[in-house]
């Protein structure tokens, strides 16, 4: 009974933190990361050596270092050189850059899986590079990259729990505060875990639905 009563008592606070911080933070970061990832993928596939080098370096750094270390650098390290960020700003910048690097590789892989003949066919129709991306290549990339994009969104939601270490009042931070008052870490952290599980399960269902709706034949290099 004690466990149930504590769950009921703490749920409104945890739900509020989820709605006000965890979900908005995840959506904002994923939107930024998606734009950044698509742009980075195009740079990596471009004919410009400087752009390819910059994009490759960015992906190398953010995929090769722990996101928690990146978060510490943004929040605790940058003030040492005169750049002070709020917890929200540090979290958004860090998670967006980190997720963007992974999305870039997913989009690049999807684009490389399409035969070059489609670019050549679009060129004969006098479509520009961006028109080809928008009308010919883009829709197919979306269908191919949807599974890794969905997986990255789920990973991003779980990664946002790290924002609690820089005092951002997300659902995990609130869970820690309640635990400090009640001395019931097992009960509270289990409840927090279930909230994340529900969010990620809903996202997985949404991903499966989109995959089913967009499951059309796509010509690849296989």
Automatic annotation (TrEMBL):
Residues 19-207 form the ABC transmembrane type-1 domain. SUPFAM superfamilies: MetI-like. It is a multi-pass membrane protein. Keywords: Amino-acid transport, Cell membrane, Membrane, Transmembrane, Transmembrane helix, Transport. GO terms for cellular component: ATP-binding cassette (ABC) transporter complex. InterPro entries: AA_ABC_transptr_permease_3TM, ArtM/GltK/GlnP/TcyL/YhdX-like, MetI-like, MetI-like_sf. GO terms for molecular function: transmembrane transporter activity. Its main location: membrane. It is found in: Cell membrane. The chain crosses the membrane at residues 23-45, 57-79, 85-104, 186-206. One of its GO terms (biological process) is amino acid transport. It comes from the Bacteria. Belongs to the binding-protein-dependent transport system permease family. This is Amino acid ABC transporter permease. It comes from Winkia neuii.
